[in-house]
Amino acid sequence: MTAICQIRQHLFEELDLMVRTTAALIEKIEDKDWHYQPQSAMRTLLEVVNHLVQIPTVDLAIIQEQDEISIRKLEKELFTDNATELLNLLHSGADRLKSYMAALTVEDFVHKTGKPFYSQEGIAYSKWLIEILTHLSHHRSQLFEYLKELHYNVNMFDLY
Ligand code: NI
């Protein structure tokens, strides 16, 4: 395995960690709490979770240069209030993302770029995979804080 493949593998393992810990947090949510909203300008818990589980699917579509209208349409189509569907989307999206990134040659993984609809500059696929992890981590922590506010029994160990 080349060094680049090794690093790609590390990133996949980090993605698996994000998926496993995010799914475990979502599984704790009780039906009565889905519409919790800390403040009017903030997302509801249901909206946070939808955005979070869509990340692998939607961010892959973004680097594949789908335009803003298609991305907004995709987000709308994927939105659900069914907990099983939310978990399935997280897992299937992450699997598709990994398959896609794994199928790239090392050269393409490191150097090939895609241009998100909101950006003037192309971004390398390897960098985008890192950004997806950052994005997941950001919203996982948002979910974690919502659960804390709702007095769920969560702590640092739920993140590893
Ligand atoms: Ni986001």
From TrEMBL:
Residues of the DinB-like domain: 15-143
Q: Which InterPro entries match?
A: DinB-like, DinB/YfiT-like
List where this protein forms a coiled coil.
none
What this protein is called in its record is: DinB superfamily protein
Q: Output the lineage of the source organism.
A: Bacteria, Bacillati, Bacillota, Bacilli, Bacillales
